[in-house]
Amino acid sequence: MNYKKLLLISLILITSSYLSFAASSSKSLPKPGKWEVSTDFGTFNFTVNSKSDHVENVGFKLSKFKCGYVEITGGVSMKSKEFWPIKDSEFTSRLNLKVYKITINGKFDETGEQASGTWEIYSGGQVCKGEWESKI
Fold first, then answer.
1. What CATH number should be reported for the domain holding residue 86?
2. Tens digits of residue pLDDT in 69-95
3. How far apart are CA 43 and CA 110, in angstroms?
4. 105 closest CA partner among 115, 84, 121, 91
5. pTM of the predicted model as reported, rounded to 2 decimal places
6. Under 8 Å between Cβ of 96 and 104
7. CA dist., res. 101 & res. 60, Å (int)
């Protein structure tokens, strides 16, 4: 009987220690709200929804950006509640306007208050790329 009690107590202690460790080492969710980013091509922004599980808005402003034989000036914004999920603190946004394509890859840090990633613009048969970072 004492052996069973000792085993049960040991099991409870191990389980509570594991749960305590898992809770203390978990990442924070990305902070909801609008994130602003400056890049070589101009600016872009994205909005993390209130549940921190999707990017729900993405906007781009390009200012005389030359990639390939095309110079791009203009802006576009997109809205979707399900199109850009955040999984394992990462997201990808793709925009295809035939003349050019933009891809944004992002990753949130463990605090959920900083993000960084890469951008790519395909235009005029050429791929232009760079890195970005943002803090909310």
1. 2.40.128
2. 888 899 999 998 888 999 999 999 999
3. 24
4. 91
5. 0.78
6. no
7. 12
Say whether 53 sits in a helix, a strand or coil.
Answer: coil
Taking the CB of residue 57, how many other CB atoms lie within 10 A of it?
Answer: 17
Q: What range defines the domain where residue 90 resides? A: 33-135
Among candidate residues 116, 130, 115, the one with its CA nearest the CA of residue 65: 130
Q: Which of 42, 5, 36 is nearest to 134 (CA)?
A: 36
Which of 44, 90, 93 lies closest to 65, judged by CA? 44
5 domain residue, yes or no: no
Any domain includes 6: no
Task: Say which residue the tokens 């809770």 belong to.
Answer: 23
Total domains, the chain: 1
Query: In whole angstroms, how far apart are CA 26 and each of 5, 29, 36, 116?
Result: 32, 9, 26, 19
